[in-house]
Design brief:
9-stranded mixed β-sheet; GH; glycosidase; signaling receptor binding; alpha/beta; 531 residues; globular; 25% helix
């Protein structure tokens, strides 16, 4: 822990508070939008301004707006123009409420840590500040692999030797934890003003626990190691706690369908519905729930939307006792365009006490797609569309994949490169904030933990394209709306009780609206209760 204290002192010494926004250092990308460049002497940031009498809008767009801040006054209800000049009307009803928000974040992978550590200290600070500070986009969650992933420079797990070590006598963290992931998490903890809720996931245990004795390919967990694999998770919780990093949740293995059907060439472990249920009920559940980590959340699935009917619904049918152990479901982004979000409705309707959390997303993941695409507004739109859809189907948060990657989308031992909201150019000692970064920030900065989603109803003309939207009451005593306009410039009218707003939305833009919530509009205190 002395190492952490020294590291904290060095890192905090870089912090200089500013009281005004610092605009984007624009780099134009041919055929795309822009990126914002950060170097050791400058990095854009912005301060959320608490609304007073009127409302404040923040907009990012394909044409280059990045968190453009504007202060507005409400319209008078007698102003007839507020109705006539808009073809789209949103009616916000704070009396109808839905899920409580847990948060937003990204993954501290080996690759993210390697790229972060390739930068000089001032730039390392700017990156963490951009994600986790009040002058950044105010992430409050992170995802951390248990052992290696494809976004490592090698295949590895903990306790690889000795073989058949059922009692995990040689369990210890890897140099990637000590050199990359843990220092990055310390920096995040030192920067954030709120607790960081960390979700941890295993891609593959050591090969000796698996039927194929390999990190990749068709595999199952050998039944004689069911308890050992549960202990593997317990030991990870112990090791990270010893480093001052409490884990908020674990999942029951990353993308288990990959190991069942050999869908991926990177680290995986396959589970059938019956096997997974048996392991949760007889091993993982008792190990965690009867320990000092009994309050750590346990999420199942941690796979694509289409797997939920199998790894949740069918598993509970076969192993109903799992319902007493599982807190929620993790879901990934990659097949969302072909699997409707309505698949979540069954869980919300029949298991309202189980939450759903989006735990991984990245662009450029399919073989035919460009990996890193600097300045891509299309990818920002893909993100915001998915986030709004998920939130409107009762998901409690959204965690992106790697916090940062290099110019080719790595490192990745399997060459399975993808894009990231921040791209590092170590040679030039600078990093680039992609449009995806700002799409994420249009939500994460304004929807803090314990916000409550509220009803928003849209009316429009038949030929008018909808403005995608979601609304929240926040613990800051404000109402927040996120609006995504996918078409040409348009105007809309928004009504929330007696408040009326007329908004001009730039073409292909994301706009966040925030205004004070009056006392009579506030939700009961129990809506913001963690218990």
């Amino acid at each position: 822990m002395m190492t952490k204290i020294i590291f904290s002192f060095i890192f905090i010494s870089c912090i200089v508070k500013t009281n005004s926004d610092k605009p984007c250092a624009v780099k134009h990308i041919l055929g795309e939008s822009i990126v914002c460049v950060c170097n050791s002497t400058y990095c854009d940031d912005f301060i959320r301004e608490p609304p007073t009498d009127g409302y404040i809008t923040y907009s990012s767009s394909k044409d280059g707006l990045r968190f453009k801040k504007e202060v507005h006054s409400f319209l008078n209800a007698s102003d007839k123009n507020c109705v006539k000049c808009s073809e789209i009307h949103l009616d916000v009803d704070p009396s109808v409420s839905y899920q409580r928000i847990e948060g937003f974040g990204g993954a501290v992978t080996d690759a993210a840590g390697i790229n972060w550590k390739s930068l000089e200290p001032a730039l390392q600070y700017y990156m963490i500040k951009s994600y986790y500070s009040e002058e950044g986009i105010e992430y409050n969650m992170a995802r951390v692999p248990i052992g290696g992933t494809d976004f490592s420079t090698r295949k590895y797990a903990y306790n690889e030797l000795p073989l058949d070590d059922v009692n995990l006598t040689n369990f210890h963290l890897a140099h990637e934890d000590y050199n990359y992931k843990i220092p990055m998490l310390w920096a995040i903890q030192n920067t954030s003003n709120v607790p960081i809720h960390i979700v941890s996931t295993t891609w593959s245990p050591p090969p000796w626990m698996k039927t194929n004795n390999a990190f990749t390919g068709f595999s199952r967990l050998k039944e004689k190691y069911y308890q050992t694999y549960a202990d593997y998770h317990f030991r990870f919780l112990e090791e990270y706690e010893a480093e001052g990093i409490p884990i908020w949740a674990i999942t029951t293995t990353n993308e288990p369908i990959n190991g069942v059907f050999n869908l991926a060439s990177f680290n995986s472990l396959g589970w059938t519905v019956n096997e997974l249920g048996k392991w949760i009920v007889n091993h993982l559940g008792p190990t965690i729930r009867n320990s000092k980590y009994k309050n750590v959340k346990i999420l199942t699935c941690d796979d694509q939307r289409f797997t939920i009917p199998f790894f949740f619904n069918m598993m509970l049918h076969k192993h109903p006792k799992a319902l007493d152990i599982i807190d929620g479901i993790g879901v990934h982004f990659y097949n969302d365009r072909i699997t409707p979000a309505s698949i979540f409705n069954f869980v919300t309707k029949y298991y309202p006490d189980k939450f759903i959390l989006a735990t991984e997303a990245s662009e450029g993941a399919f073989p035919w797609q460009p990996k890193v695409l600097l300045g891509s507004w299309d990818r920002a739109e893909s993100y915001i569309s998915d986030i709004l859809e998920d939130l409107n189907h009762n998901l409690v948060g959204w965690i992106d994949w790697n916090l940062c990657l290099d110019l080719i989308g790595g490192p990745n031992w399997e060459l399975n490169f993808v894009d990231s909201p921040i791209i590092v150019n170590a040679l030039r000692q600078e990093f680039y904030k992609q449009p995806m970064f700002y799409a994420l920030g249009q939500v994460s900065k304004f929807v803090p933990r314990d916000s409550i989603r509220i009803q928003v109803n849209e009316t429009k003309s038949f030929f008018q394209t909808s403005v995608k939207h979601v609304g929240f009451l926040t613990p800051r005593n404000t109402t927040v709306l996120i609006l995504y306009n996918s078409e040409k410039e348009t105007s809309i009218t928004v009504k929330c009780l007696e408040k009326i707003m007329h908004l001009h939305l730039p073409a292909r833009s994301i706009t966040t609206v925030e205004f004070q919530t009056k006392k009579k509009e506030e939700k009961p205190e129990d809506l913001f209760d963690h218990s």
